[in-house]
Amino acid sequence: YIELFDPTSRKALGLNLAAQSKAVTGVSADPKTTFDFWCAPADLEYWLAGNMPVILVVSDPASKEAWWVSVKDYFKDWTPGSSTTITFKK
């Protein structure tokens, strides 16, 4: 979990979000400007069921790069059986 704070005053805002991290390989070596990441349907159901904002961080350890998305925003209309693919822009 990540607690947010005001960068000016450095005071905690009492707001939290959850973060899920997944590692992938070879994404940075691919010359395309986007890549797809497939979430497990059970993961999506879990992330969407809670009352806390969730970000998914997908990283390529070899290149030390990472990309993130707000799960609840990206999948706001998701239903079981729908696509679980996230298209990330590099």
Key terms for this structure?
2 helices, single chain, four-stranded mixed β-sheet, 43% strand, two-stranded antiparallel sheet, mainly beta, 90 residues
Task: Provide a descriptive summary of the structure in words.
The protein is mainly beta and 90 residues long. It is built from two helices and six strands, in the order E-E-E-H-E-E-H-E. The protein has helices at 41-49, 71-74, and strands at residues 2-5, 12-23, 34-38, 54-60, 65-70, 85-89. It has a four-stranded mixed β-sheet with strand order 1-2-4-5. A two-stranded antiparallel ribbon has the order 3-6.
Strand order of the largest sheet: 1-2-4-5
The computed structural class is mainly beta
Give the end-to-end Cα distance, rounded to a whole number of Å.
25 Å
What's the multimeric state? Answer: single chain
Estimate the global geometry from the Cα principal axes.
Answer: flat
Number of strands: 6
How much strand? 35-45%
Q: Would you tell me the overall average pLDDT? A: 95
The helix count comes to 2
Sheet of most strands: 4 strands, mixed
Low-confidence stretches: none
Radius of gyration: 15 Å
